[in-house]
Specification:
Glucose Oxidase, domain 1; Enzyme I, Chain A, domain 2; TIM Barrel; 3 domains
Length: 580
């Protein structure tokens, strides 16, 4: 349909059910392929081994995608809500479900797509005769997992350019977890679903993520075409095609129920200013932070597109994505991908490592794969145009690695200049996450423009403890602040201040009391926090007195062990911790 035909459509209102509060206005695009659209085809007997290998590859890609979406989007959800991702992961790893699909391929000569659809159909027929909300929810999860695998099957599927999806309205058949995670990644403004129910996990997570959404909107698919302008009212459950300018203005002028105003600039209780920044991984998270009044992104994690493209993201889409982030925020520090072998990216990590955290990760991986490093640098430079690029090098523990990154940046700047594109100046920063990095802080900070401290990774290295260990005896060593970690951070901060190198801190431990108060006492004045924790940290900072924090940090650094450290903490911090 042409733009003229689209503009001639009259105003049409559709009624549905609100699944996420908020107002959005933008062009629609569709993501309606579902289980019913899958065509099953028989395969020759000689193709069975190939199809089984394809199944293994698809299942692995689906698991990797799900694990990293769970981690990257964790700040949107509560612990209970994150268990939905775990339930989907268990289904992907269920040996009974796997054997069922594998049997249909090997015994019935079905294609992988057909086997997935046929297997799901059996469960749908079984659950149809049972009146149970719990089973209906489980069936919804099964459909979601099947759809995730089918989308990984179709490698030829070419999504619209991301610049067309940022701020757009996603129209789907049913509101699935898969659709939600894609919407969060691409900066979608709202979701409209033809079907679905409010008890489904897709709807539950959509409400938690704060995306305007309306479900059970009958007939919307037949009435809309890509590019149509629609108003989604997540308050009333109404979707309006071609609304008037007055109608859009009135809806956008309303304050959604439960919405929050932007926060005031953060200050401590004694009036000391504090630089609260955002740690994000997508344009939508960036906009969410900006809406809260935090316009500076101190840490942009670039791993998600690498994982989605199995280690080979394309330069053009990356440049568009990074451009969206720069457009949304006042300042952005892009961290080069910090990956390790636990990602199970077979094209990148053909060999398993016993200890991925100490293996080919961060800058080591980037230097061993020049094409990956080149793509990232070029896409960031192109996104910036003439605006200075702030780039963070992860996992630095050797000055020679830093010099090689600097050389790679200069090569790509010159390459873009010869191609007639902009070659903006680059501010180079580093992330200190290892004991070696901490001990070399003076030499490293003398060579860079700014620095970050990843307190989680630094604590794990210093205490030789894995936060993901299956043993509580190991994990609990990281549950509380440790004198050794505080001393290391204090040294890093002192060196940075002496060299006048701007420094900020990030990490899950850093945003929680009492560690937050101790970091303030050590001299930390900038902190990068995921959007979901910004308001909580802002409130906690407002309750902290600088002198009390400094006194507590001095005592904590001299503590003999964690127990004596915890016993020395100010009693007034108990209230802050409980409120947080």
């Amino acid at each position: 349909m042409s733009e003229t035909e689209a503009s001639q459509k009259s105003r049409t209102a559709f009624e549905g059910r609100s699944a996420g509060a908020g107002i959005a206005y933008g062009p629609v695009f569709f993501h309606l392929e579902g289980i019913a659209d899958v065509e099953s085809r028989p395969i020759p007997e000689g193709e069975v081994p190939q199809e089984l290998a394809r199944m293994d590859s698809v299942a692995r890609a689906a698991r990797v995608s799900l694990v990293h979406q769970r981690e990257e989007l964790a700040d949107h959800f509560t612990e209970e809500q994150r268990r939905i991702f775990d339930a989907h992961l268990q289904m992907l790893e269920d040996p009974v479900l796997e054997a069922d699909v594998r049997g249909r391929i090997s015994e019935h000569r079905m294609s992988l797509e057909g086997a997935i659809k046929d297997s799901l159909g059996i469960y749908e027929r079984l659950f149809a005769v049972v009146e149970s909300n719990a089973l209906r929810t489980k069936l919804g999860d099964l459909r979601d997992v099947a759809l995730r695998m089918l989308r990984h099957c179709n490698k030829a599927r070419t999504p619209q350019p991301k610049e067309e999806r940022s701020g757009a309205i996603l129209v789907v058949a049913e509101l699935s977890v898969s659709d939600l995670t894609e919407a969060l990644d691409q900066g979608v403004a709202a979701i409209v679903a033809e079907g679905g129910n409010l008890a489904g996990h897709g709807a539950i997570l959509t409400r938690a993520a704060g995306i305007p959404a309306v479900i059970a909107v009958g007939g919307v698919h037949d009435s809309l075409t890509p590019g149509d302008m629609v108003l989604v009212d997540g308050e009333t459950g109404e979707v309006v095609l071609n609304p008037s300018a007055e109608e859009v203005g009135e809806a956008e002028g309303r304050t959604p129920e439960g919405a929050f105003e932007a926060m005031a600039p953060p200050v401590l209780a004694d009036g000391t200013p504090f630089d609260l920044q955002a740690a994000v991984a997508s344009p939508s998270e960036t906009r969410r932070a900006v809406a809260l009044g935090i316009a500076k992104v101190g840490l942009y994690r670039t791993e998600l597109p690498v994982l989605q493209r199995q280690g080979e993201p394309r330069e053009e889409p990356l440049a568009v994505l990074y451009g969206q982030v720069l457009k949304a925020a006042q300042e952005v520090a892009f961290r080069l991908p910090d990956l390790d072998a636990s990602t199970n990216l077979m094209p990148v990590y053909p060999h398993a490592e016993r200890n991925p955290a100490l293996g080919l990760r961060g800058v080591r991986l980037l230097l061993s794969r020049p094409e990956m490093l080149e793509t990232q640098i070029r896409s960031m430079l192109r996104a910036c145009g003439q605006q200075p690029l702030s780039l963070v090098v992860p996992f630095i523990e050797d000055l020679s690695d830093l010099e090689r990154i600097r050389e790679a940046i200069q090569v790509q700047r010159e390459s873009l200049r010869l191609e007639g594109e902009g070659a903006p100046p680059v501010r180079i920063g580093v992330s200190i996450e290892t004991p070696a990095g901490a001990l070399l802080a003076r030499e490293i900070f003398s060579e860079v423009d700014f620095g970050l401290v990843g307190v989680d990774s630094l604590a794990m290295s210093l205490l030789a403890a894995d936060r993901a260990s299956p043993y509580e005896a190991v994990r609990k060593r990281l549950a509380s602040p440790h004198p050794v970690v505080l001393r290391a951070v204090r040294k890093i901060i002192q060196v940075a201040d002496g060299l006048q190198t701007p420094i900020s801190v990030y990490g899950e431990a850093a945003v929680q009391m009492p560690t937050l108060g101790l970091l303030v006492g050590l001299g930390v004045r900038a902190l990068s926090v995921p959007p979901g924790g910004l308001r909580e940290v802002h409130a906690a900072l407002g309750d902290l007195d600088l002198e009390i924090c400094q006194s507590a940090a001095e005592v904590a650094c001299h503590a003999r062990n964690t127990d004596s450290l915890l016993a020395s903490l100010p009693s007034e911090w108990d209230k802050i911790e409980k409120e947080g």
